[in-house]
Amino acid sequence: MTVTHRKRQHQPDEIAAVNEPGFQIECDGCYTDLTHSIRIKCADPICEPGDGVDICPTCFCGGKEFKKHKRGHAYRVVELHSYPIFSEDWGADEELLLIEGISLKGLGNWKAIAEHVGTRTQEEVEEHYNVVYINSRDWPLPRMDIEFNVDPSEFQERKRRRISSMATAPPPHRVAPTSAPSIHEIATFLPGRLEFEHETDNDAEDLVKDLEFGICLEWGGDSIMEDEHDPDVKEPPTRSEDQSTDGAAEDEAEENMPPVPLETEESLAFKLTLLEMYSQRVEKRHEAKAIMFDRGLLEYKKTQAADKKRPKEEKDIVHRLRPFAKLQTAEDYEVFCADILYEAMLRKRITELQQYRRLGLMTATDIKKWEDDTQAKANMSRDFFSSERLQHRRQSQGPDSRHASVADSDGRKAYEGEGALRAGNGTGPPGRKAPAPLNLANSPSLHLLTPAEQTLCSQLRILPKPYLVIKETLVREYARRGGKLRRREARDLVKIDVNKTSRVWDFLVQAGYLRISDINATAAVSQDTNNAAGFVK
């Protein structure tokens, strides 16, 4: 017999099978479906192992032989059991499938049992089992004296309609899978048991896990009588013939066991002390869990959202007050925290008013005007001196010799001192002080500069290495052009502040590195004059 277990799935109406039980029986010779028809089952011991051999009437009449089955083997006719025996709407075949499904899938696994039956839903299977088998007056057997007068054709028609409606029913709604954090917010918390995977003082059970007591003579351990009302004492367990051998072995094992030792006073006191210590540790564990449950600490997201709304000062105060939660109830602790926060707010306000009084501010209008003026001055100072603070901060960090490109370092360092040079020349904002000269004591390549060049770099706030690059660029371009280099062209060669370029140009001319002819000088002065006139216009 070929048995194919089927799991019912939702199918369109045009391909849904009307009669489709939980499994399908096929002929082992021609593989014809015999689920809903009479079949011949081989009764020979050779073919009975496993599911046996099922033969359709056609193969049986033709004397077909296959595998180990021979035409001369004994046989029996298996008819359809589609008639009620225990319930009017349940056939005998469904009753057999129900019992078989329970033995295979396990009692209580109604979904798998319903799939095995194939013609019933999960709820119908559970209800039928409880009514017919559990609530039977002849429990644990069902009622065997019930008779039904049901027309077989009508019974089969009802079964077909029921199976057809099940085949066309929509599939059950599947719950979307959820990840562990959405089930409970605390990863190690088990909501169904109200416990944690690792409890507070998780090693408390190590004190008593191997603790055993002997006979306590002080407490009458040798004279305790057995309870006469105990069913085990009144009716001692009887052993069947099959268990006689095991019972003898158990009696022999009990005889070989050593006698129970006697408990001394010291040993008993020590063990009772261990039990008391364990009880105290378990009590502390329960108190800690009670605090978590009463304060709602397991609602992590809610607690975290409330903490985010508090200012930093309030967070610090609440964190310092947490040890007092063990000494108060949940309501008293909330009131206590609110009062402490209100006190802190009052102290802060009193300090502010005392500061206003020392400043001579007596009314709310004076305080408002003073705060506005202070804010305006702070904004003006921040905007006005932001660049200078940045320059001083970079200066305090020292020279940076880790730049991969010397040219990039030259332009960047020179550009940082641009604002300072404008301030020294009077081109910066009015009232701005000129920056202090740059300290080049620890600067690299300082020994390559003359004293005059060191003074120039200190005043212009240019490091020695960028200055040497600027100097080399101007001198090389001057030599390449045969001495025909103008000041304006020098400004285009060096991408730094034009004022710094002019100062470096003048220094190189005065030092003799650049020899400017009278024609070039006159042309340069004329060009500068025209540029200035155009700017004024």
Automatic annotation (TrEMBL):
Keywords assigned by UniProt, alphabetized: Metal-binding, Nucleus, Transcription, Transcription regulation, Zinc, Zinc-finger
Domain SWIRM: 429-525
The UniProt record lists the keyword Nucleus: yes
Region of interest (Disordered), residue spans: 222-262, 381-438
SUPFAM superfamilies: Homeodomain-like, RING/U-box
Subcellular location: Nucleus
Major location (coarse): nucleus
Residue spans of biased composition, Basic and acidic residues class: 231-242, 400-416
CDD domains in UniProt: SANT, ZZ_ADA2
Domain of life: Eukaryota
Domain HTH myb-type intervals: 90-137
Pfam (any one): ZZ_ADA2
Domain (SANT) ranges: 85-137
GO BP: chromatin remodeling; regulation of transcription by RNA polymerase II
The keyword Transcription regulation belongs to this UniProt entry's keyword annotation: yes
Residue ranges of domain Myb-like in the record: 90-133
Record protein name field: Transcriptional adapter 2
A GO molecular-function annotation: zinc ion binding
Any one of the GO CC terms: SAGA-type complex
